[in-house]
Structures are given as C-alpha cells and as structure tokens.
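Slide 14.
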Amino acid sequence: MPRDDLTPYWNTNVARHRDVLAAVPRGCGDALDVGCGDGLLARKLTAAARRVTGIDSSPEMIARAHTAARPGLTFVEGDFLTARLPAAGYDFICSLTALHHMDAEAALLRMRALLRPGGTLVVVGLARDASPTDWAARIAAAPVVQVTKLVRRAQSPEGMPVRDPQLSYGQVRATARQLLPGMRYRRHVLRRYSVIWRKPPP
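Slide 15: predicted structure.
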C-alpha cells in the first residue's frame, strides 16, 4: 500500500476509518471530525463531504494537520465543548477515540445539537474494562490484537495525546442510550466500541 498522506501509518484507530467513512450520508455537505488529531480521518472525509472541519485541542496535532490541508478542509484549534461552531450545522459528525478526553455527556449533547436533522453521528472510543464480561472479551481478543498490531506494524503520530478512559463500556453504552435514543452500539475486537446514531428528521 502506498505511503501517501492518506495511508501514512496504521493503528487500531485507523482500523475503524473504513466504518466511519461508510456511515457518511450520501450528498453530505458539511462534516465535523471531533478530536481530529493530525487530520488523517478528516482528509479522508473530503472524498465524501463537500466541506470538512476538524477540531482538536492539541496545538501540536493541529499544526501537523495543517501541513496536509486540502480544498474544502478547515482545521480549528480549540476545546470542542466551548468552541464557536454553527448550531445544527453538520450533516455528519464523527469522533474517533476522543470522547474519553472530554466529559462524555457534555460532548454527546453538543454533538447532538450540532447535527442537522436527518444527520448521522459516529463515535468510536475507548472504555474501561469493568465487568467479568468485559475482561473475558479482552482476554479472548488479546492474541488477535497483538498479532494484528505486529503484522500491520502499528504506530501512532508522535505527540498524540493519551489518556486512560474513566467510563466503563457499560457506562458509555448507558449514557449513549439515554442521550441518543435508537443508537446502535457495538464493541469491536481491537479494543474499541462504536456508537452510530441518526438524528430524527424534523
């Protein structure tokens, strides 16, 4: 696979890019990537949306994102919970492994408010193993995770902010179910969960 600005590296976050991109609604006008990091997913989104905004609180990550900017793509440095963004301004919002860096309830509420009626929200995140079922799933998946990372030579951009998740998988699911009625939740083998929700039309 060529190492260009869309395939510079692979890791367990990049592994979920295909699912995120598949959820972008047809004819998407405006998309928002919350916690965009170095902008890799945001750049890929420009193939599916006319205008894409990536927001991240890390100056280092935003600086890296700007080095590979392209038409229709804007990056904003700031706190997603307080940044000035257009209300109900997006047809598609995604957040990849960023929710645990914020107050989850406040972040989901803001994403819900920023989404246009009929729009789609995709959240992929990390959570804490808490229940016996959680630990059983982690132990069962461990060999697959280790081998996959080794074979794919997993790596991440230098300086990417890291934080341990505080909410368990069960807490994330319960919070999303309360705030996003009808959402679809799934736990993935490579230690991620995903939430997909379509905002009801008016």
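Speaker note: The first helix runs from residue 17 to 22.
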